Amino acid sequence: MDCLHPCNRRYKMSLPQNNTLPISSDESNDQPQSKQTTRCALLTGAGRSAIAVIEIWGPRAADGVATFFRTNTARAMDVGQVRFGVWAQPTSADQAHTAGESIVVVPTAEQCFELHCHGGPAAIRRIIDDLASISVRQVAPRRFSAIPASALQSLVDDVDRRLADEACDVLSRCTTVNTAAIALDQLRGGLRQWRRQSIETLADRSSDAADIARQAGAIASAGRLGIRLAKPFDVVLAGPPNVGKSSLINAMVGYDRSITMDFAGTTRDVLDADTVFDGWPLRLRDTAGLHASDDTIERQGIDRAMLAIANADLVVQVSEPGLQWDPTVIDAIRRVGPSVPSLQVINKSDLSPAESIDSSKDALATVATTGQGVRELLETMITMLVAEMPPSGSPVPINQRQWDWVAEIARLGQRPDAMLACLTRGEQQGLALS
């Protein structure tokens, strides 16, 4: 990635094998926002990866790296050079050498380094904790540090800068290619370009306000997906006890996340399992069986299941052949989640195929233990959650603030002056830009 640092000078860093140069606390945490602070930030996105990148910058960055980085040579590094070595706690005469983590260090500018390590959370946490022990403050990635120079040159005002900053933040938290592609389109200017074009059009022809309002309405319709780029869709599996909800979860994620037994009541809490299907992140939620019960613990599990249903993006109603749902349970689901879409599934359909077909014409038939119908279930879930992928490069609101703003523009088709003010401001009426 590009490190947009104003200094292009060659930079020499000495890498002693034994000496340590700690960063004093009076130059870091005691002055959290001063120029004396040395900081670090995780540049790679959320989730596991093969490689993670941590940036460290500030007046004592070189000293901080030298405290923990061990290499086979003490030769100085130029900016842009790559040096392989081991990250380990400093040693002393009365302290045994601690186990190290293999890393790559790259100086990107004066007092600015990238540390490339294993992408697992343990390796990342170790390096950040070691830096914290010498008062290097962990912060969010530097504003615009991940934005290409060409994109920075197109930022014409504070609204543009905020939109780019928000896109950079969302992109860093995306966990799949599909979601990252939408965020990257906004980082490259999708929503910003539409805003500027709309401002120019209205300044010349206020009669085009209705057309811009229609465009805003189409953009706002993509907001339901855009605001979920950094958060998986919540899919709740609900149904009577012992119909195979836990087995379906295990079949969809590909491992035994939920305990399964042949008797009812095994699941008494809401268990989450994160997975990705067809490029979209899903959080599958296994819930307690829904039925009338006087057992206090079971009742708590059922109450938590109903709360999960109320907050779900999709409810998968699981049953089995010949089993009739308790009408009170169906009524309760409709009350707590009246606007939540639902999908009916007949699991264990191999037990009585005829009954499973007759149970519901719209239900999907699955056999969790063999995987039959599981792929079709996942495909149907994605179709219901994601109507369609926005065209490449198209503007998409990627957080609630942007979604509300675009939705307001869509309502101002008969008020071109108010629309122009809203576009220029980059906010809903009455909200100040921070």
UniProtKB/TrEMBL annotation:
SUPFAM superfamilies per the UniProt record, alphabetical? Folate-binding domain, P-loop containing nucleoside triphosphate hydrolases
Q: What Enzyme Commission number(s) appear in the record?
A: 3.6.5.-
Alphabetically sorted, this entry's keywords are: Hydrolase
Q: Which domain of life is it from?
A: Bacteria
Where are the residues of the annotated region Disordered? 15-37
Record-annotated G domain positions: 234-348
Top-level enzyme category: hydrolase
Q: Does the keyword Hydrolase apply?
A: yes
GO annotation terms (biological process): tRNA methylation; tRNA wobble uridine modification
Q: Which GO terms describe its cellular component?
A: cytosol
Q: Which residues form the GTP-binding protein TrmE N-terminal domain?
A: 40-141
Q: Name one GO molecular function term.
A: GTP binding
What NCBIfam families does this protein map onto? small_GTP
Q: What is this protein called?
A: tRNA modification GTPase MnmE
Q: According to the entry, what is the taxonomic lineage of the organism?
A: Bacteria, Pseudomonadati, Planctomycetota, Planctomycetia, Pirellulales
